[in-house]
Amino acid sequence: MLGLPRNTHLVGSDVWLRVTDASLEAYADDVRVATHARRGSGLYSTHEAHLPQHRADLRHRSRGYWEGRAARLGEDVLTYVRAVFDSDDVLSQLRAVQAIVTHLEGFPPERAQAAARRAHYYGAYTYRAIKNLLRQGLDLQPLPLALAAPATPSLPQPRFARSVAELLHPSAVPQESEIESH
Predict the structure, then answer these.
(1) Would you give the end-to-end CA distance of the chain in angstroms?
(2) What is the CA radius of gyration of the chain?
(3) Would you state the pLDDT for residue 70?
(4) 90 by DSSP, 3-state: which?
(5) 47, 60, 164, 171: least buried by Cβ within 10 Å?
(6) Residue 112, number of CB atoms within 10 A of its CB
(7) C-alpha triplet 103, 106, 107: angle, nearest 5°
(8) d(C-alpha 23, C-alpha 16), whole Å
(9) Mean pLDDT of the residues in the chain
(10) CA distance 45 to 36
(11) Phi, psi (deg, nearest 5) at residue 27
(12) Would you list the domain boundaries of the chain?
């Protein structure tokens, strides 16, 4: 998909493309109206001037801005948005978070929070997951019961149990006769 400037004279016009290994150029009425570097499959090149006015201000918002908007929807949405941001160490999840938060803002806060809880529970950190979850009404279903956490975080080694070393390497552990002779 190629983004063109939001000029009204281009709407409905025929546009010619010149495609090379390195770039795409768009021409309308023999005048070049846009140039984009080719970035490969799934990567985007967006020029500020080509964005519609209502979207231009969303382009360079920070993580904090989107976390603030998520917090206005509820604590569960904020927790989910933070998990989306942290879900990929390499790629920025800003566009995904923008789409998710904007979509959730169109729903009542209870549904937005329930959808965020369910998506976070299943590790579904994409816009498509949230959209499908809400479309199918899965946010209205109760979550499966979580496994009960143990009363103590870690148990001491049982008194008469073998250690892992004894089980894996029985010859390395001293035998009873060796222990008594010492």
Answers:
(1) 80
(2) 28
(3) 95
(4) coil
(5) 171
(6) 25
(7) 105
(8) 14
(9) 80
(10) 6
(11) -125, 135
(12) 8-56, 63-140
What residue type is assigned to position 74 of the chain? G
| pTM of the predicted protein model | 0.52
Tens-digit pLDDT profile for residues 53-108: 666 666 667 888 999 999 999 999 999 999 999 988 777 889 899 999 999 999 99
**Angstrom distance (rounded) from CA 165 to CA 116:** 44
Pairing mode, if any, of strands 16-19 and 23-28? antiparallel
| Residues ≥6 apart with Cβ < 8 Å to 26 | 2, 4, 15, 16, 17, 32, 33, 34, 35
List the structure tokens of 24.
Answer: 């795409």
Pair of tokens at residue 139 = 């946010």
Write the pLDDT tens digit of every residue in 17-49.
Answer: 898 888 888 888 888 888 888 877 666 666 666
Closest CA to 121 of 105, 144, 93, 140: 144
* Residues constituting the chain: 182
CA dist., res. 157 & res. 174, Å (int): 19
